[in-house]
Amino acid sequence: xxxxxxxxxxxxxxxxxxxxxxxxxxxxxxxxxxxxxxxxxxxxxxxxxxxxxxxxxxxxxxxxxxxxxxxxxxxxxxxxxxxxxxxxxxxxxxxxxxxxxxxxxxxxx
Length: 109
Hints:
Structural class: alpha+beta
Strand content: 5-15%
Radius of gyration: 15 Å
Order of helices and strands: HHHEHHEEHH
CATH topology: Arc Repressor Mutant, subunit A
Distance between the termini: 24 Å
């Protein structure tokens, strides 16, 4: 994710690869998407999967993905209150990218 709007504007202007890389181009964002491709998750599930990553970082990534229409945050009407994260249609469309990265990593790394 680019640090400033000016960087984003200059680099991502019309290039769809740059725009996509800016959206999902960091490790933790990709791992959140990976986890949600399997099934909806609660925050604690994501936190367990991303052990060693700070709560602040996970919250920041989730808010960014929600603002970009990649995930949906749903408050469940249960006691105690719970929140669940799911991929939107746009988020599910990232499946091919994640799968290709998995294949490449398994074969070449």
